[in-house]
Design a protein that fits this description.
Number of helices: 6
Helix content: 25-40%
Oligomer: single chain
Distance between the termini: 59 Å
CATH architecture: 3-Layer(aba) Sandwich
Order of helices and strands: EEEEEHEHEHEHEEEEHEH
Shape: globular
Strand content: 25-35%
Largest sheet: 9 strands, mixed
């Protein structure tokens, strides 16, 4: 079984976010980038299939050269090879088109991705890939078992869990629960050294123009001042909620 894991290169959630050029461009200065956390769940599940069923695991990212350390980390975790599509990812459909083209040429059986990247939270790339390729697709995936060509997939629904069966080829949009957080892997020194010799192939993108463009960014408004009310002064609390906060 050939597995492809889609990796997004995203800012660490602890990074301080700023914008430049009159709030039209994301300022990367001082920002630490990491593997998208939801993609880490997908990569860890792929490693399980590699170890238990002998699958081969390739990681892929659409991005410029700055994304290569993130791909190298995925190789250090245990992926066999990496592919970087040399394109600036500005649009979800653009990314889906580029990734799908690689799948067409490489004949992967299973494509794992996080259901969304935790920078733009678009949540569109895995589903778009499935439509382009004509593959089965399950989103919000929290469980995946494969026996031969048959798949048993669990996904989160409102108020519960749904279990589905389908055949390969399959694309999933994974999330927390696909593996336990305690099972996520940290590269060790041996993995880091081995990653240096594993292949990282750079591919030029197919000719496709992004269909959307970012006009401007805006930070959330700063939180207002907090008033502390003595626990015994219920009347004052009600008065403030009614007259100042206007929530009652």
């Amino acid at each position: 079984m050939k597995i492809l894991v889609c990796i997004s290169h995203v800012p660490d959630t602890t990074s301080k976010i700023n914008f430049s050029e009159d709030f039209t461009k994301f300022d990367t200065n001082g920002v630490q980038f990491v593997i998208n956390p939801l993609d880490e769940f997908a990569l860890t599940r792929a490693m399980w299939f590699k170890e238990k069923q002998g699958a081969s695991v390739t990681v892929i990212s659409a991005g410029l050269a700055v994304t290569e350390p993130t791909l190298r980390k995925a190789l250090a975790i245990g992926a066999d090879e990496a592919i970087r599509i040399n394109v600036d990812p500005t649009d979800g459909y653009q990314v889906a088109i580029q990734l799908a083209e690689v799948v067409k040429n490489e004949a992967f059986d299973l494509i794992l991705a996080g259901k969304e990247s935790l920078d733009y939270n678009g949540g569109m790339v895995p589903g778009m890939m499935a439509e382009i390729l004509g593959f089965n697709f399950v989103n919000a995936c929290i469980g995946l078992e494969i026996d031969g060509n048959s798949c048993s997939v669990s996904r989160e629904i409102d108020g519960g869990k749904e279990v589905l069966t389908c055949n390969l080829p399959l694309i999933i949009g994974g999330q927390k629960g696909l593996v336990e957080e305690k099972d996520l892997r940290i590269p060790n020194m041996r993995g880091i050294m081995m990653a240096r010799s594993k292949p990282l192939k750079v591919m030029e993108p197919i000719n496709f123009d992004a269909t959307t463009a970012t006009l401007t960014y805006e930070k959330p408004k700063a939180k207002g001042a907090c008033k502390l009310i003595d626990s015994g002064n219920i009347d004052e609390l009600i008065q403030l909620l009614h007259n100042e906060a206007k929530v009652i």
